[in-house]
Write a structure and sequence with these properties.
Shape: extended
Distance between the termini: 77 Å
Largest sheet: 5 strands, mixed
Structural class: alpha+beta
Mean pLDDT: 76
Strand content: 15-25%
Strand order of the largest sheet: 5-6-1-7-8
Oligomer: single chain
Order of helices and strands: EHHHHEEHHEHEEHEHEHHHHEHEEHEHEE
């Protein structure tokens, strides 16, 4: 029995902008910020005196014992000024760098320190609308819930909205970015939830849940899991599951945030919904209003011939699709397949010469595929199918995207000794699981000068094949008030950051020593004889 789910994201354009502008850490007095997609954390920053288990950082003034031999408690930390309180990132895992202590505070954060906590009605702050230009007019394309409560609506002119509300936050709409986010969500759905998923208009997704919800504990549990996932991304979602595409109308015009409708009940559930729920054309809606047709139930008793003449044949088709009489196929999104080339053999091969020749042919075929798709390989996997059923694998990596045939053949030649053909190899494959766009680049001059810099990527790749991928690196600076964390490893081809302008100690004492005779310019600075004052310069 088919089951179709429709996801409706009513505030997608505005919530996408707010999610992009949300601070990384929650502001004091406000609700905790939802998690954002972050870059991978470097778990190997090099030698460091901080223990792997976390805990207090050695040398920090809130970690040292005071004169009585007692370590500061949580109440002592709470009494510190807001800008001096240590954060969990500063006291936590060694793989998380501490924030810069001298970085200017965000203006919203400074205002939140003195402003009271926002109530439920003020969760959105200022009313926000997004506008699109239609000819010589600016029209509202999306409005936040607070703006909707104040009487603004999509389709209203921006000048009218500004006249009604003085403190109105007006932004330019970004339909391309909204579409890109929907495409990413549909691709994630096709990889994680169901193989048949696609984008539904400009504000939702289609999911074909036929035969898949039992893997997640049923439809209700799946919908709750999907809702929690969208909420973690900062998106408001409404979801409806039915046996026909009528789930689209229930998700957008229904009264519940989650609707699970048994198959065969779609016509009854949609009877009281407006005609706009059928995704009709504006001309059809105008004609229906002229004839006094407002609800979907008004179309049920009408004969098909007069209905098609008055509202168009597309209206009859949409009505049949919503009731399940006519199928509406979902065109699924397809994840981008990794470039792959294959060679099958009539007879098994096992000599080094024949294997090297096949690898060279595969590399030539792979370079053609990569050039046609404007891609460069970062990781290439060679798989050899032996006649005994075992698969031999060789993996090579490139520090920069490449499709240079000679370079790839040379790198495979360095590792070909690790390939065990056994009784013979009957098929060989080349797969590129990690690739990047690689297009033409502008050259400085047509004639290479004597002092021109050469590309170090091939040399680095060959050295990494011999010495290991972790043997080659560069050192770069990192913003941290702890000298042990001021450096980190970067890739050999990365551009290291320079040192900060403010002076850092060149040598650290093994144990901090108290300073004497210190004169503080402000009350929050270290004073003479304070337990937090420590000398770090030898």
């Amino acid at each position: 029995m088919p089951r179709v789910a429709s996801l409706f994201l009513p505030q997608l354009p505005i919530e996408r902008l707010r999610r992009k502008e949300r601070p990384a850490t929650p502001l004091e007095g406000s609700a905790p910020a939802r998690p954002r997609l972050a870059d991978p954390i470097d778990d190997d920053p090099g030698a460091c005196s901080v223990p792997r288990g976390g805990g207090w950082r050695p040398g920090a003034r809130w970690a040292r014992d005071d004169a009585s031999g007692r370590r500061p408690s949580q109440s002592d930390l709470d009494r510190l000024p807001a800008h001096q309180r240590p954060t969990m990132r500063e006291m936590g895992r060694r793989s998380e760098p501490a924030g810069h202590p001298f970085k200017a505070r965000h203006r919203d954060e400074a205002a939140a320190m003195t402003a009271p906590a926002p109530g439920p009605g003020l969760a959105w702050g200022r009313p926000m609308v997004l506008i699109l230009r239609e000819g010589q007019r600016e029209v509202i394309s999306s409005a936040c819930p607070l703006a909707l409560e104040l009487g603004l609506y999509p389709g209203m002119t921006a000048a009218h909205a500004r006249a009604l509300i003085a403190d109105l936050d007006v932004r330019e709409a970004e339909p391309a970015a909204d579409r890109a986010l929907l495409d990413r969500l549909a691709l994630h759905a096709a990889r994680q939830w169901t193989p048949t998923a696609s984008v539904s208009g400009a504000d939702g997704l289609w999911l074909d849940l036929t035969g898949t919800t039992h893997l997640f504990g049923g439809e209700e549990r799946f919908c709750r899991r999907l809702t929690a996932f969208m909420n973690r991304l900062g998106l408001t979602v409404r979801i409806a599951v039915a046996g026909t595409p009528g789930a689209h109308a229930l998700a957008r015009f229904g009264s519940a945030a989650m609707t699970l409708l048994p198959s065969g009940k779609e016509a009854e559930a949609m009877a009281d919904l407006p005609l706009a729920a059928l995704r009709l054309q504006p001309e059809a809606l105008t004609a229906a209003a002229r004839f006094g047709l407002e609800r979907i139930a008004d179309l049920y008793p009408m004969p098909r011939g007069p209905l098609a003449r008055r509202l168009g044949l597309r209206t009859v088709e949409r009505l049949d699709q919503a009731r399940g009489s006519v199928a509406e196929p979902i065109t699924p999104v397809l994840p981008v397949e990794a470039p792959r080339v294959t060679r099958q053999f009539l007879e098994p091969i096992g000599t080094p010469e024949s294997i090297a020749q096949v690898i060279a042919d595969l590399v030539d075929d792979l370079a053609t595929v990569l050039q046609r798709r404007a891609l460069g390989a970062r990781t290439v996997v060679l798989m050899a199918d032996r006649i005994d059923g075992e698969v031999q694998r060789l993996i090579i990596g490139a520090s920069r995207a490449t499709r240079d045939k000679a370079h790839l053949k040379r790198m495979f030649g360095l590792k070909m000794a690790q390939l065990d053909p056994g009784l013979g190899i009957e098929a060989m494959h080349l797969l590129v699981p990690h690739h990047e766009p690689l297009t033409a680049q502008a050259a400085g001059t047509l004639v290479e000068s004597s002092g021109a810099a050469h590309d170090l990527a091939p040399l680095i790749d060959q050295l990494a094949m011999r010495a290991g991928p972790s043997a080659l690196f560069r050192m770069s600076s990192r913003e941290s008030d702890v000298p042990e964390r001021a450096m980190r490893r970067v890739s050999p081809l990365a551009s290291p950051k320079g040192w900060p302008e403010w002076k850092r100690p060149v040598r650290l004492l093994q144990r901090p020593e108290a300073l004497s005779g210190v004169v503080a310019l402000m009350p929050d600075h270290p004073r003479a004889g304070s337990p937090g004052a420590a000398r770090t310069i030898a």
